[in-house]
Amino acid sequence: MKVLVSVKRAIDYNVRIQIKSDGSGVVTDGVKHSMNPFDEIALEQAIRWKEAGTADEVVAVTIGPDPAAEQLRTALAFGCDRVIHVKTDEVVQPLTAARVFKAIAENERPQVFLMGKQAIDDDANQTGQMTSALLGWPQATFASVIELADDHARVTREIDAGLETLEVDLPAVITADLRLNEPRYLKLPNIMKAKKKPIEASSLAELGVAPAAMLETRKTAPPPQREAGVRVESVDELVAKLKEKNLL
């Protein structure tokens, strides 16, 4: 079984996001980037399948500028067999990413295409669903448990009412939620070995992918400052405060 995993380069979750002075976006120059945490969970799951003998090959793919190769080196340190870098310096929004992933999936023919449920930079939560639709494959999103069989996957997913279990035929697109697993800490020897491994390069043009129309961000602004909290002495005072603010 071949598993394809997408890994996106995103601003590290520990970084305090700063808005550019002209409001055109967030500051990215000189800012630490890492693999999108939800993609890291997806990658960990794929590697566990390989270690258990369920998967024969794990291939990671990313889209982005040259520095995105760092995230592919991380994927190799996890234990990926191969990595593919689709190079572009342009901003890639979900529909363009989904078109790229469709082309890669048609070339690689995996049984499972795993990805994080969303990226922490735009929180769009669209790419997995769009990729599934373009490929015409079943999808199972927000997976917290995945059980694979020869021709289908049984996926437990988190919904507002609790848990839901779906069964989808393979090949399928599955997106990982937070509780699917806890990614491993990488060992230094694996990181050093990953630095010497090859990265397959491609481009949108080589894949025959046309960028989709872009959504334009007109202005970015920080959220308003939160007011300081107020300590109340009783439930009656709390209710009065909430009524005062028209919250009850």
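[next item in queue]
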Amino acid sequence: MKGSWIQRWFGRGWLSLGYCFLYLPIVVLVVFSFNESRQDMVWSGFSLRWYSELVKDSEILSGFGLSLRIAVLTACSSVLLGTFVAFVLDRYRRFPGRTLFSGMASAPLVMPEVIIGLSLLLMLVSVQKVFGFPERGLTTIWIGHTLLGMAYAAVVVQSRLQEMSKSLEEAAMDLGCKPFQVFFLVTLPNIKQALASAWLLTFTLSLDDVVLSAFLSGPGSSTMPLVIFSRARLGLDPRVNAVATITILVVSIGVIVSSIYLARAERLRQKQIAAAFKGDAD
């Protein structure tokens, strides 16, 4: 009895330490974004001064807007391409070069971002010399982020496809559906939660990426993480705390809304499955 009590409190202690290690720095950053003083770690009173000055900081606002545009584009393209990759790997188990295709699709997950960024930079510079396009900026950063995000999206969608019962698609084909009708009417509704999770994951990865953005950005196309990183090297700026707090707020709202949506969708799916089994039993 005494041993179980100690074990329980020991586990809770480790859990608390883990949460503190993960989230205490974020809490400190949010708190000091409301600090009146310019000096970090010296609290001189509550103030919204840095948020009001942030509105006048065109460099951070421009970087924030650019990061949001790239993140939205990256999430959409990554989910689209990642779904194709996952569908091919899950539905077509045997075709020439499958092992090579699978390895190349997942290579960005284990490849250092420095190597990916450098290789992409060399390739895009060569392409630009030949065709005069693309200029380094939004397009090149989007291409780099999509390459990385596609690999993550493929893993998320493929895991859902593996859990999905193939009998649903087979039943639809027996009833006369064409392959594209099976995909849009049966497969897509069953993997929409994984698509939403992959979209959020790739959106967040793109929003805070520094390494690829540093290689692929051009003059006048600095994303928000690059602006923050360049300013942090010259000393901590309270306006950076403010923009980081806004970013945390945006990402948190997105995660909460998606979690509620995914939970409701899962409950609805379970109810539909239960109703279908009940109908068959009747």
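[queue empty]
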